[in-house]
Fold this protein.
Amino acid sequence: MTIKSYIRSIPDYPKKGIIFRDITTLIKDPLGFRMVIDSFTQRYIKEHTDFDIIAGIESRGFIIGGALSYTLGKGFIPIRKKGKLPAEVVSYEYDLEYGKDTVEIHKDAIKKGDRVLIIDDLCATGGTAIAATALIEKLGGIISEVAFIVDLPDLKGSKKLKNKGYNVHSLLEFEGE
Amino acid sequence: MTIKSYIRSIPDYPKKGIIFRDITTLIKDPLGFRMVIDSFTQRYIKEHTDFDIIAGIESRGFIIGGALSYTLGKGFIPIRKKGKLPAEVVSYEYDLEYGKDTVEIHKDAIKKGDRVLIIDDLCATGGTAIAATALIEKLGGIISEVAFIVDLPDLKGSKKLKNKGYNVHSLLEFEGE
């Protein structure tokens, strides 16, 4: 089994014409979950481990980021939706297809010059990931890489991140499917 | 350093008179995070590993549950707020101090007879944890244990869980502090 084969595709979710790529079927399988974490660990244990801390994007990024923080011996920082973090935060508002959204990070989560790996389950239009890079840079952090299990290159999020100069890594793609 | 010493206490959050126990300062420290995951792993790798899968409660339960799923070689199931899961769900509504909340689980997350470890960061009144046990039992699952980093025994959540017959485990307590 490949990692990709564990992912469930749900047609017309959250709306008509969209195919939702659901990782819950991947991570509920012990081997599927292990393959994901081992793939990232292998990458970052070698030459790409030039970061100090891992930032996971709420909520699915927490599952992957938590495991990876353990395997790599790094601390974990949550990037959360507005109003969820208890201490002083910096915020970043960004546009969605309809309306706006805001993500936040604790002000003391990162020190100036810290190198950060950002992790989430899936890259679509890249809005939340770009917001995450902005938050970390507001605090003086440096983005080492932005990593996903799944990239949807048709939606151009990973391209946008690369055009901004960030390293982007994903384990697999769904393209034109 | 003890695990407890890494936890930040925030007075009057989310409202006057409440002391919020913030685990973000614990998990952003590589040693703090490792102590937490190793403590749970030590427990469950020995005689208490009579479960098939780990269910984490959104959102902080995802960070701990993801890491623990990896160390123990188990799959991970998310228990989420209403409307977040893409496939068919079962729901459970429960009372909060003011108003109601609903948690959901995918119908195919658990098979009848599966033994489940439920994990979250903190046990206060126990409302969400009890809702999580109800969801798993609706699907025919059996609760092996409910585990937390922090228990607040003054708020009686862990007592309620024990009175319902569940095994409860926490790494540390804040009591009368």
In short: The radius of gyration of chain A is 16 Å. Chain A is about 30% helix and 35% strand. The longest strand of chain A covers residues 142-151.
